Amino acid sequence: MDWSGVGYCDVLSAVWTLILTAPIHCRASTDETLMQCYISPNLMKKQTHLHLGWPESEDIFREQPIFSTRAHVFQIDPATKRNWIPASKHAVTVSFFYDANRHAYRIISVGGTKAIINSTISHNMTFTKTSQKFGQWADSRANTVYGLGFATEQQLHQFAERFKEVREAARLAREKSQDKIELNTAALSIAAPQDLCDELQSPPVMCVNGPEDKLFRSQSADITLSSEKERIKKMLSEGSICEMNLESELFTLQDSNAKLVAALHEANANVEQWKKQLAAYQDETERLRDQVADLEVHGSQGPSDMLKDELTQSLEELENLLKAKDEEIRILQSKKSNFHELEQEREEAIHRLQELEMRNVDLERRVQNAEQNLASALEDRERAENEVQRVVQILDVKIFDLNDLRQSLVKLISK
């Protein structure tokens, strides 16, 4: 069947029509399955729960991802097991899918023409947040560790919550699958001998419009429905992969377009500069042509002789410059040979400077002591002077008294 001209909406409409028009026989039995059907891409989060008695008890394929986000993908370095290796140059779409054929949940991300992530979620997987915008989980089947870097902390939280939900759903699906296998095995082991005895004891009975005829028609319709479902599943799977590839190609083309636009703006900015340089080159060319014409017309010597003289003069100037550079190199080399002597002299000067500093400190200490001694001596001298003044005053008083006494004695003698 050719699905190349069928659109996504047509496919979804066909699936829903097939579900509604199929000969479904609902019966209250133990193999009745609770199935979840997505009505449309715009109502992904509004799920309708239907009790449909499918003979195979299998889920309807989810044509759209359960959850999608954009993140930078990394893988652990298999050699060191410590460093992260970028798996994509830019942020890519990371989606949760349900694989109805294997009854498993997967995390899939496609970059270009290759699958960057193809991880089957098991019940024992754990998504760990290692920072505000980065998380990781280990895939033992792929023998690697995947890391996702998100643009915001909210995206990381949403992915972690969705990971927990899908992991719980994977655990329930695993338990349900194990229970189903055990029930089918037990039913086959019990029903096989009875069917064999019925075949040996009674021939086949054909009943028109009886229960057997209804069951045969129901089984035929269910087989047809199963084949249609398988074809639709295959087509939807191919459509999802093509959609992811087209989305990756779209982001790649947008990136290339942005680079080309930036290069175009840069080229437009440089056009004026290039025009100015071209005009300057043209003016220089015209000037040189005029000089050549003047030299050819008015030159007493030939152009070749004048060029030879100019070249000779330029050569002499270059030789002089070369000699000057050689002399400068020689001087620098001689200075380099005296570098060690200068270094020793510098060390000796530093040593002498240190000794002078020590002597200076000693002299400062001695000066301080001398100043203290001088201050104490001045104080002693001042005290001595004060004492001498006091003694002089006492002596003056005594001398005055003696003088009075002498005069009194003279008066007495004269009498």
Structural class: alpha+beta
Strand content: 15-25%
Series of H and E elements = HEEEEEEEEEEHHHH
- Largest sheet data: 8 strands, antiparallel
What's the gyration radius in Å? Answer: 54 Å
Uncertain residue segments: 1-6, 15-62, 189-217
Shape by Cα distribution: flat
Distinct helical segment count: 5
Q: Into which percent range does the helicity of residues fall?
A: 55-70%
Number of β-strand runs: 10
Calculate the mean pLDDT score and round it: 73
Distance between the termini: 180 Å
Short description:
It is found in: Cytoplasm; Postsynaptic density. This protein has 415 residues and is of the alpha+beta class. Helix content is 63%, strand content 15%.
Helices and strands, with pairings:
Layout lengths: L7 H14 L11 E6 L8 E6 L14 E10 L7 E3 L5 E8 L4 E8 L2 E8 L6 E2 L4 E6 L4 E6 L3 H49 L9 H88 L4 H35 L1 H76 L1
Antiparallel strand pairs: 1-2, 3-4, 3-5, 3-10, 5-6, 6-7, 8-9, 9-10
Helix pairs in contact: 1-3
Write structural notes for this entry.
- With 415 residues, the chain is of the alpha+beta class.
- The chain is 63% helix and 15% strand.
- It has 5 helices and 10 strands, in the order H-E-E-E-E-E-E-E-E-E-E-H-H-H-H.
- The strands form 2 sheets. Strands 3, 4, 5, 6, 7, 8, 9 and 10 form an 8-stranded antiparallel beta sheet that branches. The chain has a two-stranded antiparallel sheet with strand order 1-2.
- Helix 1 runs antiparallel to helix 3.
- The protein is flat and about 180 Å long.
- It starts with 7 loop residues before the first helix and ends with a helix.
